[in-house]
Amino acid sequence: METMKYSDTAFPVHLDPGQIVAELHANAVDLPKRTVREHIEYALDHPIGSGPIEEAVQAGDKVCIIISDVTRRWQQPSTYLPILVERLNRAGIPDKDILILCATGTHRRQTEEEHISLVGEYLYRRIRFIDHQCDDKEHLTYMGTTSRGTPVWLDSYAMACDKLILTGGVVYHFLAGFGGGRKSIVPGIAGRETINTNHNNALNPGLGSGSNPRVCNGNMGEDNPFHADLMECAAFAKPAYLLNVIVDDDYQIVGAFAGDWREAHRAAAKVVEQMDGVPIPHRTPLVIASAGGYPKDINLYQSSKTLTNAMSATAPGGTIILLSQCREGFGDADCEAQICEYDTMDEREKALRADFSIGGFIGFLFAEMAKNYNLILVTELDVQRFGRTKIQVARTLDEALKLAARCNGGSLAGVETILMPHGGSTVPLPQA
User: Fold this and answer.
1) Could you give the 3-state DSSP secondary structure of residue 26?
2) Residue 253 β-bridge partners
3) Rounded CA separation 236/234 (Å)
4) pLDDT tens string 171-204
5) What is the residue-wise DSSP string for 98-129?
6) Does the structure show a pLDDT above 90 at 129?
7) ∠84-142-214 over CA atoms, to 5°?
8) Residue 416 in 3-state DSSP?
9) Least CB-packed of 23, 104, 238, 322 within 10 Å?
10) What SS3 state is found at 365?
């Protein structure tokens, strides 16, 4: 019998195996077996859409390397940044002409210990390192306004350099389609006004219109206004080069891509899709998704990827059972406020548009999903906390299945079902 992880345990799935259309697991992708150094050197020696890095910079250039902050330390930057700096040194760029700028977005300033964890102590002692501060208006430079009306304010320290090199990791992203690439610029080194205006593209125009379904995992097309606006924002910065990595489930680097900031990033995204994009024959009326057990289900905020992935597999108006213990509660104050403090979706949306945050948007998504689907949450969170939404709460998977049966005419017999035991990392790709 199939089981679904829940915190430190697992629930059996008491359904007829014949009604289970698919069980989603990551694809086995045959990638070259290389050390981190070999991956990075190969990427720099085989750039995509541009010449080698030695042609992108010249002696005398002031070079800014943009890196991700500690919330994305899984990218293992301390393993590849020294190699990148080596190549810059060989190209005639001494340490004194290099700035490492951490793309903190709206996140807090980091500690010295965290800085060292990102780049390694040897590099940290050699090269100037600063954190971007989105509210430090004295050190923001206005670059222009996008066609969607986003005023682009970027870090003045970066803009004072001759060349920008973007680094980071590429994964599926529930708003931008994929992380990495242009996200080093916005939200990475942008002002708060720029970040909030751009992020409002996750919502359809006009109060009451809710979230845009094309702002989703895997979509880097022009019909994703969130991504398209990001591309316009990043173009103002004129990045000279990009080095992005991809990692496996154990956060080990399994690929690297260098070159043009657009083309190399797209190449990385294609490999991520091959790894984590799992074809399904069609959407089904019932989807059971686990966030993956502890620590992936430590709070509701962390379960948002599972929610959006499950939605991609669920037929319109269908039922989603999401397993997430949430031993540490909601995990984000804005997420909690969206769910617990408003009576209507219009009230939630009005508050979100006025002061957009990722946490608030995730709370909004949970409430909106419960409006459009039958959303049943298997969790330890207090059921009363969800009283202002249509989210149903159960304590076990069996209890959730009974609730699901009520949503399906009293029985789940013969109801086609998809199981997502790794709901946070596998992205369903419907084939019909």
Assistant:
1) coil
2) 247
3) 5
4) 889 899 999 999 999 999 999 999 989 999 999 9
5) EEEEEE-TTSPPPPHHHHHHHH-HHHHHHSEE
6) yes
7) 75
8) coil
9) 238
10) helix
- Residues 234, 224, 420, 296, CA torsion sign: positive
The pTM is what? Answer: 0.88
Tokens encoding 181: 């690439």
Phi, psi of 97 (to 5 degrees): -100, 10
Give the distance from CA 151 to its chain's centroid: 23
Q: 229 near 203, Cβ under 8 Å?
A: no
Q: What is the DSSP letter of 302?
A: G
Least Cα distance to 45 among 89, 102, 83 occurs for 83
Instruction: Please state, in angstroms and rounded to a whole number, the distance separating the CA atoms of residues 207 and 349.
Output: 7
CA 55 to chain centre: 32
Question: Residue 334: exposed, middle, or buried by beta-carbon count in 10 A (0-12, 13-18, 19+)?
Answer: buried
CA distance from start to end of the chain: 28
Q: Tokens standing for 30?
A: 């045959």
pLDDT reported for residue 73: 67
For the sheet containing 417-420, what is the strand order?
20-23, 417-420, 284-290, 314-323, 374-378, 392-394
Strand partners, 178: 172
Q: DSSP letter string over 368-395?
A: HHHHHSEEEEESSS-GGGGTTSS-EEES
Nearest to 304 by CA among 167, 172, 416, 138: 172
Closest of 124, 240, 255 to residue 184, by C-alpha: 240
The rounded distance, in Å, linking the Cα atoms of 361 and 263 is 29
Model pLDDT, residue 1: 66
Nearest to 228 by CA among 258, 198, 205, 204: 198
Q: Is 189 helix (H, G, I), strand (E, B) or coil?
A: coil
Q: In 3-state terms, what secondary structure has residue 273?
A: helix
Report the interhelical angle of 225-237 vs 192-199 (nearest 10°): 150
- Give 339-368 pLDDT, tens digit per residue: 999 999 999 999 999 888 888 999 999 999
Residues 268 and 276: their CA atoms lie apart, in Å, by 12
Encode pLDDT of 412-430 as tens digits: 999 999 999 999 888 999 9
- Residue type at 306? T
pLDDT above 80 for 139: yes
Strand-pairing partners, residue 116, are none
Per DSSP, 206 falls in state S
> How far is the C-alpha of 163 from the C-alpha of 64, rounded, in Å?
6
